[in-house]
Write a structure and sequence with these properties.
Layout (H helix, E strand, L loop, with lengths): L5 E2 L2 E2 L6 E3 L8 E6 L2 E10 L15 E5 L5 E3 L12 H13 L2 H6 L3 E3 L1 E2 L7 E2 L5 E3 L1 E2 L37 E2 L2 E2 L2 E6 L8 E5 L5 E5 L3 E3 L3 E4 L3 E4 L5 E4 L1
Antiparallel strand pairs: 1-2, 3-20, 4-5, 5-6, 6-19, 7-18, 8-11, 9-10, 12-19, 13-14, 15-16, 16-17, 20-21
Length: 240
Amino acid sequence: MGHVTVVGGCRAKEPSTSILASSLAVGSTVKLMEGGTAVEYLVVNQGIPSNSSLYDASCDGTWLLRKDILELLAYNSSENNSYKASAIHSYINSTFFNLLGEMEQSVIKQVKIPYVNETGGAGIASGASGLSAKVFLLSGYEIGIGGADYLPRDGAKLDYFDQIAGADPKRIAYLNGSATNWWLRSPYTYRASTTNVWYVADNGGCNTIRSTYQFGVRPALILSSNALFDEKTMLLKGVA
């Protein structure tokens, strides 16, 4: 039998213990508060992805990806595949970000992510010239489809994902229990396309489609390495 301390006739609460974000194993699950509800996120990387120079120091932290799809949205209301000008980038950094708890908002890092600057035929802006964001979509290279035809090199592989050109079960995500297509931030670059965007299909494969389609949104974000999670609930609780 374990020992229970009784104080004034009541059971004393066991002290909570904390886990440092930087010590979390890639592939483990933590929880963030969204609109007052605890939501699961996957740890998909620790530190700079693949030690790539495409990222500056702001991206050195604990990378999280929402486990399930948030909702269905068009990448853009018009046929335009510029990520920085997209409706989806604006939405996740305003409406979605404001759903997060105060603790979450304070610990999420402002980062510079590599991206295609303008539409599909433009160059990659990276490092300190990357796109400033608190929340972002993952890129094709980050989920392990690097080398696919007409895919821009707007990122480097995250440790959670495998380097697989075809379908990968790790990429499958669900909305209300059903596997659902979800957007990447990478535009299609064939003939300097201005309309199509890469997405993950419901079988874990990848393809491209016009930006006006309604596909799933999986927000990604980076926490400071000194963020703390409660060991029992795996909820974010502060910083060290």
